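Holo prediction. Input below; ligand is N~2~-(3-carboxypropanoyl)-L-arginine.
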Amino acid sequence: MPLVEINFDGLVGPSHNYAGLSLGNLASASHAGEVSYPRAAALQGIAKMRHNLGLGLVQGFFAPLPRPNPVLLGALGLHAIDESDAAQRRLRAAAWSASSMWTANAATVSPAPDTADGRCHLTTANLVTMPHRSQEWPDTVRQLRLAFADKAHFAVHDAVPPCFGDEGAANHMRMCAAHEAPGLELFVYGRTGGAFPARQHEQASRAVARLHGLDPARCLFIEQSGEAIAAGAFHNDVVAVANERVLFTHEQAFAEPDATYAAIRAKLPAAEIVVVPASAVSLAEAIKSYLFNAQLLTLPTGEMGLVIPLEAWEMPSVRGWLEGHIASNGPIRRVLPVDVRQSMANGGGPACLRLRVVADPATVDPRFLVDEAKLALLERVVAANWPEQIDPVDLGHETLAASVIAARNALLADLDLAELA
Ligand code: SUG
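Structure of the complex:
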């Protein structure tokens, strides 16, 4: 089979909860302390996978990481928690976080046509800015090395050194004539100094480009606008998304938008840049609705479809803009709303939940690819084992911990993924 785009969605883990851990992520902050519904959350994610599989696209998944994470708790000397200490309770919540569901932050991916050695390169993201996310990468890299074990076709790199924050594909876009053609890779970084952290360091992006053996002439390093970070765009994929020749972006996404568009057009003359003006959808509305945290997909018909969260479809300004775009024959031909509300309440839309890998599916470990039968199996395992709800005050309870651990073990057993246990 030729190279195709495969979307690997993170299965929402059984410890999914709202602990308010992500400064600068407005959804995470505003839902802090609420009761979460891990079973419903995972079923919503599986329904999204089924939706996209039904469009005729190749779909994969990654398993949740071990939580509560004994490695993090042990390294922090937190074998026992002083319940009167808020900082200790917060660190415990970090060890319980199901944040690996947002696989757009698992790694940065450069497909084979872009790299010097003709292999697909993946660099695991160190996610160092947020303590609860910084624990992910050692387990993530294990899983990536299993899924992409075929060394003739893949190279999986460890994370770049923690002095430079790297948030993976959420700050990386690839534009090309077609997925299987050489691409222009766009690395978007932030500059520190604002009210909220800039999670992606320019030097991390540059290191990834070097590790992947990219041609410097086919890379652009673009500064994210400080305004966007301050408004809650903690990752670039909250305000922009690209697919093949199309870049779909809010006008306030980049520090120097006109220079950015010109640089893209100079390197990829076929580029179509669709800019949503603030006069149509304000930055605040874009971030609240997650219009851009969408999956811009090339459908088997050759048309592009935009998988958006229901929240975006329900916002009048966003819906108005999308309807106008379709009516005026813009490059996005279909709008496909999906319900991922449980993930959205923690700041994770349809695009956060997936890692794009352009590859021949035959070169991927088939345990990580899904068909209808695999999705039905995932649903059965989730329905039988995932907690129905978690109140954040219950994090740390032994019975809850035991059920979360047992749920993941049941998944790994049923999917024949014992190596990840
Ligand atoms: O890193 N939320 C995630 C959301 C990640 C979204 N990913 C992309 N944009 N690609 C984050 O901020 C919230 C966890 C909590 O508060 O319990 C959280 O980690």
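Residues 18-22, 25, 28, 97, 99, 102, 104-105, 130, 133, 170, 234-235, 237-238, 346-348, 352 surround N~2~-(3-carboxypropanoyl)-L-arginine (CB under 6 Å). That is the main takeaway for now.
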